[in-house]
Design a protein that fits this description.
Layout lengths: L1 E7 L2 E6 L2 E5 L21 E3 L5 H4 L2 H8 L2 E5 H8 L6 E4 L4 E4 L2 E7 L16 E7 L2 E5 L9 H7 L4 E5 L8 H11 L3 E5 L11 H10 L3 E3 L6 E3 L1
Parallel strand pairs: 3-4, 4-5, 5-6, 10-11, 11-12, 12-13
Antiparallel strand pairs: 1-2, 1-14, 2-3, 7-8, 8-9, 9-10
Helix pairs in contact: 4-5
């Protein structure tokens, strides 16, 4: 079983066994997550899909305070190393690594990636994690891509974290197609309603998912579930 806690936007804490993994922490600048105390978040790993501020804002603090391992593409990992992060693991597209929580593969995403100071964030990506209790896909910020079909060829995906906010990423219709491509019926929604650009009709999204035979999970900020 996998325990998942939502911190808003695209930020999650996923617990696999006794290991805690934080994805794309953008919490303290997010007014909708003002009730979340970032100082209480402890992680063994911090995974970053790309370099935009709304995905890395709290990465340095959480990584340092937890003495966690930061995992991202080469450019982002090295950028954080220059900010004093001592424990980091750089990856790139198509590469896999076995960690103590399971096997992680860094997969493609169609987006952009510039770090807050204007440095190159390399190419954006997503993560597939296969562990003793199952397998899931964290898409990061991405458009729909036929590359997602390769994930279904290699993995049996139990659920997928997919953006549904449109404008900067997939909207709900493309996210439903992405779920088909990766071979799952269970979607944990992210990257929606944080800013005016990505505010969506949640009722319409729910209806579209129901019509497509998918389970669309819309978590409240601070809510935890077990899958």
């Amino acid at each position: 079983m996998t325990e998942i806690t939502y911190f808003g936007h695209s930020s999650f804490l996923v617990k696999i066994g006794d290991k805690k993994i934080v994805f794309d922490p953008f919490i303290s600048p997010n007014k909708k997550a003002s009730h979340i105390d970032v100082s209480t978040i402890k992680a063994d790993y911090v995974l970053l899909s790309h370099g935009h501020e709304d995905h890395i804002a709290d990465a340095e603090n959480i990584t340092k305070e937890s003495n966690a391992i930061l995992v991202s593409n080469y450019e982002i990992a090295v950028w954080f190393a220059q900010k004093g992060i001592e424990k980091y693991h750089p990856m790139n597209h198509g590469g896999s690594k076995v960690f103590d929580f399971g096997k992680l593969k860094y997969v493609s995403a169609v987006h952009s990636s510039t770090l807050p100071d204007g440095s190159s964030g390399g190419n954006p990506g997503g993560f597939v994690i296969k562990h003793d209790g199952g397998c899931f896909y964290y898409a990061g910020d991405t458009a729909l891509s036929y590359d997602m079909k390769l994930i279904a060829e290699e993995f049996n995906i139990d659920f997928a974290f997919l953006p549904i906010g449109d404008n900067f990423t997939m909207g709900i219709e493309d996210a439903l197609k992405a779920a088909d491509f990766v071979g799952t019926k269970k979607i944990i929604a992210m990257h929606y309603d944080t800013f005016p650009y990505i505010e969506i009709d949640l009722d319409a999204a729910k209806k579209a998912a129901l019509k497509a035979g998918k389970e669309l999970i819309l978590l409240n900020i601070g809510e935890s579930i077990t899958l």
